Amino acid sequence: HLVDRISQRAIAKETGYARNTVAKAIAHPIPPGYRLSQPRPQPTLDPFKHIIEAWLEQDKLGRPKQTHTGRRIFERLRDEHGYKGSVITVRRYVRKLRKHNQEVYMPLAFEPGEEGQVDWHEGWIEENGVQRKAHFFCMRLCYSKASFVWAYERANQESFLDGHVRAFEYFGGVPRRLAYDNLKSAVIQVGKGKDRKLNKRFRELRSWYLFDSRFCNVARGN
């Protein structure tokens, strides 16, 4: 209420508590010592949790300034996936995931040409004095940290495949393996663990250029 500027009525509707209960909780900085035996279900958010988890996993591969905030995740869910819930629910789940994932991992070490990372990023370009939003295909080599970036009007499959071809030409070769978020241009369906049903045209791209692929696990970062 005080941090996110959410009304008491909205909090009551989102949490299922009576408005009197919400008002008492706001008035008393130390709430009663009661905890739910099980996490309260979030039916509005549940269908979108795997998307949030995938975005946060992909953030680990990018620059700190490009990571998703809770509000940015809410806006993308609302605009791109039709999410109808509140921003406070999204922020609460993001905080929970980040707290859970604060674990120590050994840094990854790569051989030359072993692996690259592919993702889309949004930004602005100026064309004929007019600024417009663009989608940037990015491929980064894990060993040398060399990067290739190409701007597209749309982040569709045609641009996705074309970006690979241009990147391979730029680097003068093809990494043995490429790491992805679970992009729709590559993945039709995410199964359990590492199981993925891949898009036909993406399979053909892999077969032509003879590289392997690795996809982020939506539940964990390894």
What's the gist of this structure?
This protein folds into three domains: 1-40, no CATH class; 42-104; 115-215, Nucleotidyltransferase, domain 5 (2-Layer Sandwich). Helices cover 36% and strands 21% of the residues. The chain is built from seven helices and seven strands, in the order αααααβββαβββαβ.
Rg from Cα:
21 Å
The total count of helices amounts to 7
CATH topology of the largest domain: Nucleotidyltransferase, domain 5
Poorly predicted parts: none
Strand order within the widest sheet? 3-2-1-4-7
Question: Quick one: CATH class of the largest domain?
Answer: Alpha Beta
Report how far the terminal alpha carbons are from each other: 35 Å
The major β-sheet equals: 5 strands, mixed
Based on secondary structure, the structural category is alpha/beta
CATH architecture of the largest domain: 2-Layer Sandwich
> Helix-strand pattern, N to C?
HHHHHEEEHEEEHE
What fraction strand? 15-25%
Rough shape? elongated
Which homologous superfamily in CATH is the superfamily of the largest domain?
Ribonuclease H-like superfamily/Ribonuclease H
Number of strands: 7
Q: Could you tell me the mean pLDDT?
A: 80
Helix proportion range: 25-40%
Element layout with pairings:
Blueprint: H1 8-15, H2 19-27, H3 49-59, H4 70-81, H5 87-100, E1 115-127, E2 130-141, E3 147-152, H6 157-171, E4 177-180, E5 187-190, E6 196-198, H7 200-209, E7 212-215
Parallel strand pairs: 1-4, 4-7
Antiparallel strand pairs: 1-2, 2-3, 5-6
Helix pairs in contact: 1-2, 3-5, 4-5
Q: What characteristics describe this protein?
A:
222 residues; alpha/beta; Nucleotidyltransferase, domain 5; 3 domains; five-stranded mixed β-sheet; two-stranded antiparallel ribbon; 7 helices; 36% helix; 21% strand
